[in-house]
Amino acid sequence: MLFRRKKFEVGRFLTRARGFDPLEAQAYEELVSHYLAHGTRVTPKPFGLKLIVVSDTHGDLGFGNKFEEFFSGVAAYDLCLILGDLCPYELERVLTLVPKEKLLALRGNHDRPDLLDQFGIPNLNGKTVTHRGVTFAGIEGSFRYKKGEWPMYTHYESLLLASGMSKGADVLLTHDRAFLSAQYDHAHAGLAGITYYLFEHGIPLHIHGHLHKSYRKAYPNGAVEQSVYGCEYIEI
Q1: Closest Cα partner for 144 from 133, 134, 155, 129?
Q2: Domains of the chain as residue ranges with CATH
Q3: Phi and psi dihedrals of 63, rounded to 5?
Q4: Does residue 2 surpass a pLDDT of 80?
Q5: d(CA 212, CA 61)
Q6: Which residues fall within 8 angstroms of residue 234, CB to CB, at 6 or more apart?
Q7: What is the pLDDT of residue 4?
Q8: How far apart, in whole angstroms, are the C-alpha atoms of residue 170 and residue 161?
Q9: Which residues have CB under 8 Å from 179's CB, separation 6+?
Q10: What letter does residue 99 receive in the DSSP assignment?
Q11: Residue 55 — φ and ψ, nearest 5°?
Q12: The whole model's pTM is what?
């Protein structure tokens, strides 16, 4: 007698995941395999927005006039995206040139809990914001690889966050990458919650930092992944 393979259900997986070892990343490869095979297919499209993106500067903007020189080369922009791992004085420097109403911000895994609050900047984490008809969703931080009140999550915690977020988004902004394999170290392997949100809802564009490298490539479902390091100007 042949046995039919049970259908993968995200809700049941979440229930089981509650009992997983928080550091056992291999346990989440079942989720990845499901979405790589059955994730919502998408076709990238232009949104008509010009963006300044700043991520993982780690104090580097404090040397000379780096941000001012970069900003002077930008003729026009719609939004400035802060994707985390900036020192407070760097964020203060950005605010001398960028009005708060043009900022969308997230904290990185090295950012203090009050980094955005001290400047009165809303945290996009777990929320959505629409600008000129384009909806942005946000997930902060990285995998929880150390103790302390840093913006970090276990895979299970990130899944709980992502499963409670609004489904209607065009662009997902995160600090970390999506979790696609357990082959990387915990700090840089990504978050399962990001994977869930991207593939479950068919988000066409994902912009993130954290990896200290810039690249643009396609996910298996056709969506675009854009990794940013430092200050970049991009059009979407």
Answers
A1: 155
A2: 25-235 (3.60.21.10)
A3: -95, 120
A4: no
A5: 15
A6: 50, 51, 53, 207, 226, 228
A7: 42
A8: 18
A9: 25, 28, 32, 143, 155, 189, 190, 191, 192, 194, 195
A10: -
A11: -155, 140
A12: 0.95
